[in-house]
Design goal:
The chain contains 5 helices and 14 strands. By secondary structure, it is an alpha+beta fold. The chain has a single domain, classed as Jelly Rolls, CATH 2.60.120.620. A 7-stranded antiparallel β-sheet has the order 1-11-7-14-5-4-2, covered by helices on one side. It has a 5-stranded antiparallel β-sheet with strand order 3-6-12-9-10, with no helix packed on it. A two-stranded antiparallel ribbon has the order 8-13. The protein starts with 5 loop residues before the first helix and ends with a strand. About 4% of the residues have low confidence.
Length: 187
Amino acid sequence: MPESNGPVHFNLFLLPNFLDADSCASLTSELILAPTTQAPVYIEGAEGTIHETIRKTTSLHPSDATFWQVHEKLLKQKSALEAHFATSLTDCERPQFLRYEKGDFFVRHQDGNTQQLDFDHLRVRRISIVVFLNDSFSGGTLNFYDSTTTFPLKGETGLLVAFTADTFHEVVPVTSGERFTIISWFR
C-alpha cells in the first residue's frame, strides 16, 4: 500500500510533549519496577484473554497515584479531542501501561466503536489514545491502515496520538530495545 500524509488521511490528533522528557523518564523508571501481567486481548468466540499469536506485550501496574495522575492529564484533553474529531465524549477509561520487548507486537485490529464486537466495553470506545514514553527502540512502529493507504508512525518521547477507535492499526514487532507506552480510550 502507498504511504500518504498519514496524520491528515487518518485524521490523527498529534500532541507532542503531552508528557515532558523528565516526566517520561521518571514514569518509565517506575514502570520498570512495577508488577507485570501479560496484556490481554479480546477475541470474539475465543476462551481466555491471552493470545500471543495476536498480541504479545506486558501490562505494567504502577501505583494508584500514577494511574490517577495520568488519567487526570488525559481527561484535560477531552475538549481538544471533541473539537478535533467533531464528536461529544463522556469520559476516559483508566489508562494502561505497556512494555513491548524485542519480538513483541499487536496485529492489525480495531479498538472499538464497531457493531462487530462482542464485548460491551469495546463497543463504546470512540477515541483511542497512545502516549509514547520513549523512542529508544527499533521496530515497534504504530501502523495505520485503510483499503488504500498505510501510514507508519514512529513514536517520539512524550507524543500523544489519538485516532478513532474503528481505525485499523497495529504495532509491528520491536526489533531492539523496549517500547513503553500508555494507552486509553475515550467513550
